[in-house]
Amino acid sequence: MGTFYLVTLYMQHILGYSPMRTGLAWLPFAVGIALSSGVVTKLVTRIPPRVLAPVGMLIASAAVFWLSTMDRDASYALHLLPGIFFTAFGFGMGFVPLTLTGVHGVASQDSGIASALLNAAQQIGVALGLALLATVAVTTTAHQLPDALAALYQGRTSGNEELVTRASDALVQGYSSGLAVGALILVVAAVITALVINARPQPSAEEPTQTPTH
């Protein structure tokens, strides 16, 4: 979610995208989620979550780090689109196994509580992650140029290209720093998942459950 926020700000403030164009620019995210979910749904029956989820997180981390290398004139097709797609692909690859693990093996009477705890944890993570990445971005930008956003639009209004350049560079530096922190967090999450999660591959609904023999 922090990536959504920072890249959206970059598109609108730096590249000058309209809200409609910004929304359309995020469509590859949906494609990445759909593709990875379909792939992982088949793999999760043979590969344990402690392998699938970290791989997905590392893919997403690499994509977010790629986005963090953007500059004032980043190409959508060559820079933003691949980053958005692979962030989504990695997200889906990590999200599906962890969701299945969170509710796997829970008694039927406790399934509602397990789902509620899982959703609550996700929402807390979204809030904390967004707050952290936004704070990093704002702090970095303010260190480069206080009130950079106001300076950007002031420079554009007055035709002061030097001010526009300075403000744009300060804002991009902030966005890049926030995204880099997000990429690092995903690496840490991948390591924790690989060490902590110990669930086995989960059989599909079509596969009969084997009964132990004596």
Biggest sheet descriptor: none
Q: How many helices?
A: 8
- Which class best fits the helix and strand makeup? mainly alpha
Give, in order, the helices and strands.
HHHHHHHH
Shape: elongated
Radius of gyration computed on alpha carbons = 21 Å
Task: State the share of residues found in helices, binned by percent.
Answer: over 70%
Beta-strand percentage range: under 5%
Give an account of the 3D structure.
This protein has 214 residues and is mostly helical. 78% of the residues lie in helices and 0% in strands. The protein has eight helices and no strands. Helix 1 (2-14) runs parallel beside helix 6, helix 3 (27-43) packs across helix 5 (76-103) and helix 6 runs antiparallel to helix 8.
In short:
With 214 residues, the protein is an all-alpha fold. The protein contains 8 helices and no strands.
Present the secondary structure layout.
Blueprint: H1 2-14, H2 19-25, H3 27-43, H4 49-68, H5 76-103, H6 111-144, H7 148-158, H8 161-196
Helix pairs in contact: 1-6, 1-8, 3-5, 4-5, 4-8, 6-8, 7-8
Question: Tags for this entry?
Answer:
214 residues, mainly alpha, 78% helix, elongated, disordered C terminus
